[in-house]
């Protein structure tokens, strides 16, 4: 028996999670385990109703679960940032889910926007750091009348190039990113462990030539971890360049490890080359704690309730969840189910099919059961 | 008579600039102007010899020129960051070249790695802010024994989410990005001016949902500038999503304006969809000062002196330079020359041809002269 939290969230969230739950329950039937689903009413609706983002009670409840299955967040009535930071990022930080795992894999039968690339060319793993970097939420804004605060920044952080960047500015905003040695080490370790199980190659993506302080530390840690994995080939690439290679030579990559913000960017690009957001799952993992699995797409409010959204990313995220709670065979069966739905053309409109969200879930559940 | 500085830089820099100079001189002959080329010995070689990056004398000399034609920088013998920050970024900052202009245009006859995209689908302009954001070079590192400094950061910049991010860390690095109202305004104004001459659409790329302080200010400024251009359609996209749309729907974009770091990333992706770095020029522009034009690729040390590097990005950068110094007709002729070399297959190996660097330059020069 596994106790799994479901957070449907906003927009298409409830529909895609429904489809995922159908599939995971079928996998439980087939492989002899039960999932006890625990519902949490967390999202924009409640925020608009009560002003609450994440309550003490939510946290206490989630802490009784083995894992979290997460739909999607975002509502046009709420300013960008509130919900994402107050719920999604808050959960990642609270549960210290320091690994954001995003497989980039072109499944058989899926169309990629890249010319001449086949499933064997696009199959790598992005390991995104998930609790540091520019996601720590430290920053502020000053106006001219608060010049003293500006002076504080200026003096504290000796401006380089001998240039007084903001001398005449009437308003300045700043944002701080942090990388700690321990924070970098644990996620890079994880990436090397995964590389050892795969093709034994690990690429670090950073921008150490410009953001030298944080990514200089990142590189040092990467290099020192690499020393403990002599059988893994390593490589450094700058984030700007890596966007080119994802498009031109995705076959070069096996495991890619990267700080939080660059991970955000390159995994959306990765999602597109594997066929689009409708197909891209993510895991927010704390190997010693409670992990959370989600499609990496948003809540698509305009499709809410229409039963047309593509549930495959969510179902695939469900497979990652099963693997994480020790049901590896079931996880494999779910991924196989996804593949067979694609090959059978039993997919939603965005993938060229004509099926509804629930019908895709039901179909895959049936494949798994038989 | 125009006085133009040439900074060849490292690796293939001298060869590609030679080809560019040949073409620009030909354009001068044809359209009746002379270019007085002034050579500057700036780059890794000198740095390794003398320890100098950019001297007072360099600056004084460059200040006597109307424009700067810049090759490429970078040498494997120097740690990442030193040369880039000490020369390239230092020049951008010193001359306050606050606009980094990068046309993304698939020329006729060029192969894009995207399936089913034609020249009419890939034709937009990225306007990258060039003097602020995370490029200001402010950051530092602390070790555990300097805990007090850590406390300073912690207290000064109230950590959000109620989470004490780096509590047990033995080493922390931080990096600060700045956006000023004036800094955002001037580059966004420029982008809207360009949009007005084109298809009247301007897209802002940011990550205001997470880095809310700096990009919140950026969005506010974008919105207020947009109010002065009622004929220009506007749109906001997050940087992660925009990498998807560049690959899936590049035809959606006309002018894209973005802060420095995201601009760095998305223009490399843009370069790839327009056929690769061999074809991507950039202008570092100060409309009231001295601007600088360069290919956006690096110095490719391993091809140094082999006369095989693709000079088209540099020649195209030369066209942008000519336009900037008021020689619009000549600029158009250079771009036409580039297009005809591609259509004639008179190109380097990376583009499927068999020509040398200098032969491509000579051929285009000849086209322009006749
Ligand atoms: C919604 C947003 C805060 C989030 C992020 O930036 O991490 C999303 O883009 C993602 O990649 O999971
Ligand atoms: C070399 C590097 C410092 C530079 C940048 O990051 O701006 C380059 O990538 C560019 O895009 O011009």
Automatic annotation (TrEMBL), chains A, B:
Main EC class the enzyme belongs to: oxidoreductase
Pfam families: Iso_dh
Record key words, sorted: Manganese, Metal-binding, NAD, Oxidoreductase
A single MF term (Gene Ontology): NAD binding
Gene3D superfamilies, sorted: Isopropylmalate Dehydrogenase
InterPro entries: ICDH/IPMDH (IPR050501), IsoCit/isopropylmalate_DH_CS (IPR019818), IsoPropMal-DH-like_dom (IPR024084)
EC nos: 1.1.1.85
Cofactor(s) of this protein: Mn(2+); Mg(2+)
Record keyword Oxidoreductase present: yes
Ranges for domain Isopropylmalate dehydrogenase-like: 3-364
NCBIfam families: PRK03437.1
Designated name of the protein: 3-isopropylmalate dehydrogenase
Native source species: Methanocalculus chunghsingensis
């Amino acid at each position: 028996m596994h106790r799994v939290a479901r957070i449907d969230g906003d927009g298409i969230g409830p529909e895609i999670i429904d489809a995922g739950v159908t599939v995971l329950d079928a996998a439980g039937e087939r492989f002899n385990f039960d999932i006890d689903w625990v519902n949490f009413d967390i999202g924009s609706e409640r925020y608009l109703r009560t002003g609450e983002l994440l309550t003490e009670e939510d946290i206490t409840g989630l802490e009784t679960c083995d894992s979290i299955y997460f739909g999607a967040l975002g509502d046009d009535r709420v300013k960008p940032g509130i919900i994402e930071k107050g719920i999604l990022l808050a959960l990642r930080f609270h549960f210290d889910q320091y690994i954001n795992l995003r497989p980039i894999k072109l499944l058989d039968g899926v169309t990629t926007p890249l010319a001449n690339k086949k499933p064997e060319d696009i199959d790598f793993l992005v390991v995104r750091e998930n609790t540091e970097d520019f996601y720590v939420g430290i920053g502020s804004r000053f106006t001219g009348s608060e010049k003293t605060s500006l002076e504080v920044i200026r003096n504290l952080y000796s401006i380089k190039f001998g240039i007084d960047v903001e001398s005449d500015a009437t308003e300045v905003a700043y944002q701080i990113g942090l990388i700690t040695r321990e924070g970098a080490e644990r996620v890079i370790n994880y990436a090397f462990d995964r590389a050892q199980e795969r093709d034994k190659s690990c690429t670090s993506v950073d921008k150490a030539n410009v953001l030298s302080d944080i990514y200089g530390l990142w590189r040092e840690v990467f290099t020192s971890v690499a020393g403990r994995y002599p059988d893994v080939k390593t490589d450094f690439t700058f984030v700007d360049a890596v966007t080119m290679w994802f498009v031109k030579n995705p076959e070069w990559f096996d495991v890619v490890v990267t700080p939080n913000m660059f991970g955000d960017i390159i995994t959306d690009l990765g999602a597109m080359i594997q066929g689009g957001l409708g197909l891209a799952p993510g895991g927010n993992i704390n190997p010693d704690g409670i992990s959370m699995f989600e499609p990496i797409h948003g809540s698509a409010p305009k499709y809410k309730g229409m039963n047309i959204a593509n549930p495959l990313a969510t179902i695939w995220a469900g497979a990652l969840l099963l693997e994480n709670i020790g049901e590896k065979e079931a996880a494999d069966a779910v991924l196989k189910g996804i593949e067979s739905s694609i090959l059978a053309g039993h997919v939603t409109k965005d993938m060229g099919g004509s099926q509804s969200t629930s019908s895709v879930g039901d179909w895959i559940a049936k494949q798994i059961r038989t």
